[in-house]
Amino acid sequence: METLINEIKPQKTTNASLQGLGNALENEAIYIFREVVAQFEKPVLLFSGGKDSITLVRLAQKAFWPAKIPFPLMHIDTGHNFPETIAFRDKLVKELGVELIVRNVQDSIDQGKVVEETGKYASRNMLQTTTLLDAIEEFKFDACIGGARRDEEKARAKERIFSVRDDFGQWDEKNQRPELFDMLNGTIEIGQNVRVFPISNWTELDVWSYIQKEDIEIPSIYFAHKRNIFLRDGLIWSAEDDVVFRAEDEVVEERWVRFRTVGDMSCTAAVLSKADSIDKVVEEIRDSKISERGARIDDKRSEAAMEKRKQQGYF
Amino acid sequence: MNVLKIATAGSVDDGKSTLIGRLLYDTKSLTEDKLEAIKKSSEQRGYDYLDFSLATDGLVAEREQGITIDVAHIYFSTPTKSYIIADTPGHVEYTRNMVTGASTSQVAIILIDARKGVIEQTYRHFFINNLLRVKNIIVAVNKMDLVDYSEEVFNNIKKDFEALNAKSTYGEQIVSYIPVSALKGDNIVDKTDAMSWYNGDTILGHLEELEAQDVYDAGKVRFPVQTVIRPKTDEFHDFRGYAGKITGGSLKVGDAVTVLPSLTQSKIKEIFFFDTSYEEAPAGSSVNITLEGDINVTRGDMLVKTDELPKIEKQVTATVCWMDSKNLVPGTKYIVQHNTNRVLSKIDSINSVIATDYTGEQENKNKLSLNEIGEVSIKLSKPIYFDSYNDNKSNGAFILIDAQTNTTAGAGFIN
Q1: Which is an annotated GO molecular function term of this record (chain B) (predicted)?
Q2: In CATH, what number is assigned to the domain containing residue B299?
Q3: pLDDT tens string A212-251
């Protein structure tokens, strides 16, 4: 046992907080992670390389220490990711010593299962659903842990913490299981799976404050940097002509920007910003008058865009 | 940051969603793009005002029918507190959703339409908050603008509600009355000039003063084991930790504990939160505990202080809220999930269906239908270790899982 003692940090006195060691949201998320491992046989953490899934990884570490995270990470790669995100992902996985599974939207396209969108608003975001559902079937995952939050979007506000999907991956939003107290019911039939959202109750600011407090490393695109961009519909698009459609009259200019949310390059808009440190980012979010998903081009398709995608099995 | 959880209750058209929208708007929690979306949708629907319910009614079906069907969670914060509001549907057929929303809340806001006063639905909303022992109740008398901000109307409603409160079975409940107009923003966040006769707090002012104490704080220490952590690495070869969340009070290193159901005695050796060890951990902490000696503990077991044993029985009587379209009838089998412990059970008898309108009427029809509440006796295949719900919320509640459909079919509160 000597090695154990050496590894443990010095003892601290009890935190006088009413809501336990850590904070209430952190305790809740850790509790949820442990329920997943206890109630499911084959969980997986859906990892996009974005701040929410990075936060999930830290919470999973806390939930199971001194054991390693007891499930793999899976990335559904659209092929249109920011290169910074991919580099970050590979580094993190190596440090943690966890298994990483990557499944590519390009493969689904090559197999003829989905067809690439065309035109001005072409994006691979919608196509991810097919690749994800195929991967769930391939590995027989019964629980997919994701970083969706209820404050992001109004259809997500209706989501349960354990959200049951049928064997077509569909969400039956009008017939959800009641969730009482903190008792989570993850019982399912073979073929069904559960989407688990441990940070359901966190807001965007909660996530950023946690990253700040815990000193968690995140990809560089979250911080202010110079980038070639163009403007369309009042949003700032990355000028990445291989991936993002740009009309001839849409002029490229170099500006200081950062990303508040990181998805596929074709559906994530940047914000003008000079915030180049976590402290400045937190300050900026606190004062922001625009919501995080205000920079998500995929949500602007219609009022029910998210609900429709979720019914089909989108994350 | 402290978190205060609130549930709303009110009938259709009492203005719940409007009240929440107003809270968000007046605390500047609605960002410009969300506000823009509400403006656009309101105009499309031909309204000449901003329909804040469009911010919370997230499903297409809800917006079509203009009603809330399922619980939505809404978040906002002030410099002192974070708030989570469970916006629950008011329709009688959604009683189960109201119970769900109330189960995690420290505060309930019950809305009353000033023009209609206390109605049958109000009785049910209050009854459920009594049953679930929600400590703070705010009675928001809404649409005061439509009754000329009349003090008399407000006082009459208050008197009616006080009569209802006299029938409450939960003495420690604190009820406050606030006259508001959610549409106009009177007494939601800002004080209004329209009701100079009212000197009390606004809704937000009142919320700001409440203590953000966790629902699971009261009672004796209970530690349901979620999972056993065994790293099996060279470094931690013999490590065997019990992961769970502490409810009730705090646990200290050296505390004499008993493992249930085996009744094995031990002492707490270490308490970890992530990679740091602590001398003591308060209620609400998700910790990892090691015990003295080589003993057998698995998921579903519970650690308690040796001098604070709960009841350990194979038979319980509970108030059950039924949440499934398939009726609950005697003789059927369900899985009882009590904390992390799951036990097969058989419904012995349904003793009564309780009227939720305080008439004290009890019907005995030997079944419980969807959204009904009744007293049920249940026989368990193995013992559970529980307290009465009145003494300990987290250790006195359970859910019933249908073994065929796997759905959560009911919620029980042990007598």
Answers
A1: ATP binding
A2: 2.40.30.10
A3: 999 999 999 999 999 999 988 888 888 887 778 888 888 8
CA distance B213 to chain A (A): 6
On whether ipTM exceeds 0.90, the answer is yes
The answer on B231 and B192 residing in a single domain is: no
**Which residue matches tokens 């009820």?**
B175
The residues in B 272-331 lying below 8 A from A, measured between CB atoms, are 272-288, 299, 323
Q: What is the set of domains in chain A, with CATH numbers?
A: 23-206+306-311 (3.40.50.620), 217-299 (no CATH)
**Is residue B295 domain-shared with residue B367, that is, in the same domain?**
no
In angstroms, the Cα distances linking A28 to A24, A63, A180, B251, B255 are 6, 10, 14, 18, 25
In a 3-state reduction of DSSP, which class is residue A295?
Answer: helix
* B72/A11 touch (CB, cutoff 8 Å), yes or no: no
Predicted TM-score (pTM) of this structure: 0.90
Nearest to A88 by CA among A51, A45, A124, A128: A51
**Which sign, positive or negative, has the C-alpha torsion B180, B186, B190, B193?**
negative
B121 interfacial to chain A (CB closer than 8 Å): no
Number of domains composing chain B? 3
Tell me the residue range of the domain where B339 lies. 311-414
In a shared domain, residues B191 and B235 = no
CB contact under 8 A, A67 and B231: yes
Q: What is the DSSP string of B213-281?
A: --GGGSSS-EEE--EEE---SSTTTT--EEEEE-BSS-EETT-EEEEETTTEEEEEEEEEETTEEESEE
Whole-angstrom distance, CA of residue B402 vs CA of residue B199: 51
Q: Are the C-beta atoms of residues A145 and A163 closer than 8 Å to each other?
A: no
Q: What is the pLDDT of residues B221-237, one digit of tens each?
A: 999 999 999 998 888 98
Q: Same structural domain for residues B202 and B270?
A: no
